Structure formats: C-alpha cells, structure tokens
Model the fold of this input.
Amino acid sequence: MLLPSPSRLLGRVLCPICLQWIHWGKAPRVEVNPETQESKPFPPRGVDETRAAYAERRLGSQRSCTLMRDGRATTHYLPDQYGAYGDPIVIGLVGHRAAGKTLMLAAMVEALRFNLGLAELGLRVERLDEAIDQYYMTRFVEPFCYRREQLPLTQISPIAFSYVAKVYSAHAQRDFAVAFFDVAGEQQRRRRSGDRFLDTSFLSAVNALMFVVDPEKALPSVLGESATAYGDPAFNAVMDRLVEIRGEKGSQFLPLPAAMVVAKSDLLEHRRPVVGKWLGRDDDLELRTVAEESEDVYEFLVNNGAERFLQPVNRSSDVSLHFASASGVAPVDGQFPAAGFGPRRVLRPLLSLFAMTGVLDRSLLGDE
Amino acid sequence: MTTPIMFDPTPQVTDLFELHWGRLATGERVLRKVARNAEGHRLVHAEVNAGNLLAALPTYPSQLCQVIEHELNGPQTYVTTTYRGVPVEGQPTAPLPETALTVFGDLLVAIHTLAKAGLTHSAILPGFVLWDGEHAQLVNLGQAVAIGEPARTALDPLWQPPPGPGGLRLATQAHDVYQAGLVLYCIATLRGPADAATLRAELARGGTALSALLDGVFADDPRDRPDPHQLLRRVEDARLDPAWRGGGEAHIPHQFVPPPPPDSPARLEFRQKIAAKREYRRRRAEPAAVAWRFARDLFDILWYRQDSPYSRGAVVAVAALVVGLPLLLVFLAFRQLKG
Done:
C-alpha cells in the first residue's frame, strides 16, 4: 500500500505561486471580480440556500493565499478545488521564446478534454475551475484548434495557472488536480527577484516538466540551414535552478520526471525517415512504444547536432522523448492552412508524464 | 523435326550459344539455342535428351519449357524450346505475395515432374525461372542431370546447397528443393543468395509467413529437407493464409524486416542512462529512503506552515520523543550496568 504523503495526511498544499504551505481546509474562500481583481469573502451557505444554488455559486469562488514579506502583504488566488484532491500534479512547460510551448499546450488541453479514448486508460478528465477553463478555451484552444489562428507570443507576466484540470485515475483510484504553467521563454531565465510573481519560483513546486525542443533552433542542419545549434538557455536556467533547489546531495539526478518533445516535427517529417516513422502513427494512447520512441528521438538528436539540448534528459530521474506537432503544418501569414492542419501525437508526452507521476501505471511505458 | 517459326532479326550471342528468339504460328514465344562450342553442344544434347524423357511422360506440365525442335547432326547444333514470360531475376520490386507463392508452387511441380522423368534440374536460378503473368516456367533443361549422379557445381557457390552425407553433392530432389527455396527467398525479400546457415538464421529471426513456408528447406543434410509433396501441401495451405493474399499491395507483407543496424553509440549511451535512472528510482523507493523523505517532509510542513504556534510545539514534541527516548534507554542501560 502506498503511504500518503505528509502534505496529504495533514491536508496541506504547496502554493505554486508563493511556495507556502497552505492548510487547504482553512484557506479563505473568496469571490474575485474578474475586472478589478478585487476580492470579497465568499459568503457561507445561507439557511435558505439550496444545495444546488450553493454549488452553483461556488463555481465562481477561489482561494486566496497571502504572502507576507517585508511587512507587506500580497494576495493571489488559487482555484477553489486545487487542493481538494491531495497533492496536485504541477507541470511546467520549458523552452525558449517561440519554441512552440503555447501551441503544444493548447493542442494538448484540447486533446485532454475531448479525447474519448482516455477512458481506455482509466482516465476521466473534467475542468477544475470554470473561469480558468473558459478563459483558456476562448483565448487559446478555440482560436488555435478551431479557427487555425497563430497564437501571439506569451509575454512576461505574473505567474499564473495556464490551465487546470481534474483527472480521475482508475489506476490510482483517486482524483488529481493537474495544473499547467506555460510562461514566456525569457521569463524562465530571469534571476530570482524581489517580485516572486515574476520570476520562476513556481518551478520549486512543479512535479513534472515538459521540455519543448524547437527544431528550427536545435536542428538547423536537418532543415538544410547552416546555422549552429547552441542549446536552449531556458533549459539550462530551469535545470540549474532546480538542481540548486531540489537536487539531492550526492545524486546525479533530479527527482523529477520529464518529457522532452521535439515540437514542430512536421518540419522534419520528410527529411528524416525516423521522424516520419513516428509522426505518421496514430498512437497517442499506445504507450507501450514510448521507450522505443525515446531511444529513437535521443539518437536522432545526438546524431543531428542537438546534444546541447539534452541536459534535462541526463539530469531527470525519469524521462521520455517524443516527436510531436501541435499544428501539423507551418503557419502562413498568421493563419494555419487547412490542408494538413491538426495536432499530431500531442497527448503522448502528457500521458507519459502521467505514467511517471503515478496518475497512470508506470509499466505502461514499456521499459520496465 | 522442323516447325515454322518467325524469328526476331537480331540474335544474341553468348559464350556458349547464339540465342534466337521467335514465335510459333500460335503466337507462343520460343528460344533457339545454337551451340557455338563443345560445351554448347553438350548442353544442347542434354536438353534434347531431357526433352525426350519428359515428352515420354503421360502429360507435359506447363511449368517446364518444352522442346519444340532440335538439330543435333547438321552443320548447326541447336534446340528450340518454349520461352514464356520474363525471368524473375532482377525485377525492381518484390512480386505480390500470391505471385511469389505461385512461382514457388510451379517450381515444385516442375521438380516433381523432372523427378518422374528421372532427372533433377540442379541449376534452378532466378534467371532460368520465367513468369508469364499467370505461371512460372523452368527453362534451361540442358543443366538437368539424372537423379543420383553428381550435381553440377553452380558458378555462384551461394547457390550451391551444402553437401550430403560423406561430403557428396548428389543430384536429388532435395538439391532442387533447396534452390527453389532460395529463388523464392531472393524474389520475395529482394535480396541476394546467402549460405544455408545465414538463411536459416534469417528465417528464424523473421517469424513470418515466409519462414513457415520454407521451414527446413535450407537444412544442411539433404535428408532433412522437406520433399516437393510436403512443400506443395504447405503452398496449398498458404493460399488460405491472408499473409499471402496481397490484395493489390505493391509490397509483400511477409517480406523480412531489414536486420536492425548495429546499435549506435548514442543508443547505447541512452540505454545506460535509462538503466542508471531506473536504479536511482529503485533506491528511492526503498523503505528507508521513503521513511526519511516522509519524516523530512513532515518536519518541513509542520515547521513552516503559516498557522504555526502549536505545530511547532508538535514538532518539538516529536523530536524530543525521537531523540530523547533512545537517550533515555541508553542512560537506563548504563545505570543498570554500573549498579
């Protein structure tokens, strides 16, 4: 029997924004005005309020978390149900500017929410927070997936949840809150600053990482360009920070699983057979071949001059590598052409992370 | 014996023969081989002899070329035989599965018929196997030798079956079966010939419909090879196997997967990394490591939580218990020893 973690036993949740332990049962529930960001205490259920009416009202509530520093209090908000299911799974997307993180996450969220095949793996996915879900769907998923629009580059902004979902796992026999953080590439390289909401402190709370490799930067020779691949500073910045904060003495590994995704793989598909071999498969839910694919991707990156992108592979305690493409085609004037458009194998890295974090059975990955 | 034949204007000249292609009045394609030297003469004689033996059989199978005419005593020594189709050798793509199966089946019928005439072909090579779109035809009967005689030595040793007991290489059906199997292997996999040990290893690795069909064909000892009857039964069974029904596919499903390239240094390096990670995770999952992390995290949560006053008290109490109890036990033991 798996021992519940101390945080779960004590009902505590680590706030990914300010890194404080929150007693979830006592965390104040508030109503936040989306326009002014002002909050007011969430009124408890009234004696004349039906259960249905109360549940409906709670959809708009959040939990406030206050960070005291230098005599000054700053407040931020977490989804109301974020800590209701024990230790959340916090996934950080890492990659330099314009690597394709945002498109990848949008395609991934769309697949996560609407792929009926997930039930075969014993997963059931629901939204965790109405406001975040609606914002993300209208701002990212619908423009990209349904209208084939190129999304704007992510700007430096206070760290906030990109998306949160509730995932029921038949394997673990419980619900998980799964949170995604997609921050601007240059923000990942920021020094720790006084403003904890602008630097990447949230990385201390992640329990899985997704590294997004941009072939245009990592594999110029494969694309017929003469440029040299110099490695991704965001990868190194994040890894260095995590090693300093969460590394274990005497260990070469960081106790975190990671998935590395060669995004925009459609650019490579017709240039290298190994990419075509994997990208041509409709095997998002077929995780037994992940180990085989990881080997192929690693060999591909090493043999094509992208060794400098592999530090996360060397340091993570568990890793998988993937070929994927969020759009399947390159954009033309800010719009993706209809021909060939569609996400390819975007769910596979996420499901691999699920297997490495205990949401799914680890043995599904086919290497143990 | 002469038959009206319309010959093509330009013959082809080889070391042994002048080759004249032509057509019978029925439209059937024929080949006249005119001997150019003593070895050519011998082969023409042998082919005429084989033709006579086969013609004496009650029926003549379409799987063997047929001698139409010959001249052994005139100024030119020649033999003309039917020549239906084109050699299966050197085709750019592999045949459809059912085509390959038919070729093999027809070769087995040819071998069986030759044996009834007391002959073995002993030089079944892809260049002597013709395909006319419906059936295969084995030509070049001048190579045939009587069963039990020493088999001819193939020019390419890879087409030579291993010798039988005592190192003797006798012309038997097993000899022909080996070569027919090798023809099928070559055309189905688009590969060149190989020695028997390599072929067996390839087939054992393949685990495919082709492996099942050719099981035992490349045995070292000719006595261990299946005879044409057994193989024909396999062919009949294979016709029902979906793997041998191509359905218009351009490639054959039972074709071998190319042997995996030797593992690259990068691949080996990755496997080492994965093994090291696995070992690391195993060590982290040991009870002592789990307990240590549990205690550390518990302390961390209790000590740093926001609503702290009495949680810190709890930590102090737990710490006192964990540290103090062993100290107390040591102290009591010490006193007892002293007393």
